[in-house]
Amino acid sequence: MRSWHLLSFLLLADVVSAGDECAPVATITETNGRVEIREGDHWQMILPLQPLCDGDEVRVGKKGRAVLTYLGFSATILSPLNSPYTVHEQRLQQSGSQKAMIKLRDIFLSLMKRTKAQSASLMTRGGTVDKGKEELRPVGPKCEIMLFPTHDVAFQWKGGRPPYLLEISEKTPQPEGKKIYKAEVRENSVRIPGDALREKMAYHWVVTSRSAKGGGEFQVLGKEDSRLILLELAELLGSVSTESEITRILIEYGFFIEKGFLCDAQRVQAAGEKRFSKNELLKNLALSVAAE
Fold it and tell me: For the segment 268-285, what is each residue's pLDDT rounded down to a tens digit?
């Protein structure tokens, strides 16, 4: 049997628009085998994180399995034994507290709307100075703000010719802030330990090759603000009535994306991909932050 797959939302176009005939109340967050939705007299393969409306019918093929997630939040395991399954709006209304229901609904609706083109705008702000024909393009860290305490932070760039000089400085009112890192590297990426970064501090980083230069900025949130955000996430996950770990990863990932903590979203994705190494589609979550 194939391993469980998290359906990539990056394949969808604008799935929730003003022209939709109904308001979505659920979606499929995991699938194994053939999963279909009834379209008139026919059955069609369901799309990744396709919105499901009240009255929609979903079925799972032989030896298949899926997790149907109401946006409220409750989850139902679908199998050949309970197929076809009819989506019921009342399940959305009865699931969880009102606050958690609204939050989880918003997270899933946000994920459903995302496209590759939209995710490209999530890149960190970074300048590029092109000198001659050589171009150095900084592409990370792919966030403007991150939680404290921070995990290892990946700095990445493309183009240029090694060796590269990477410098990271605290951004202060003074002309030159305290330099916390300066080293020559020969690869197009390097990881900096999170404990080198302070709370409530903005940083400026510059990478220089033989004839080109680029860089960007990011900020580390304060300890108390970070604690409150993580507490909000813990309460949200505590309201989730499912044993599906991949679905919980999707919720945590979407929570950080919605908050704008893209590096933390990347961390969740990377940990999930490592844990579910046979789940190839889980890798597509990274594209929402790493798209070029």
Answer: 888 888 887 765 556 666
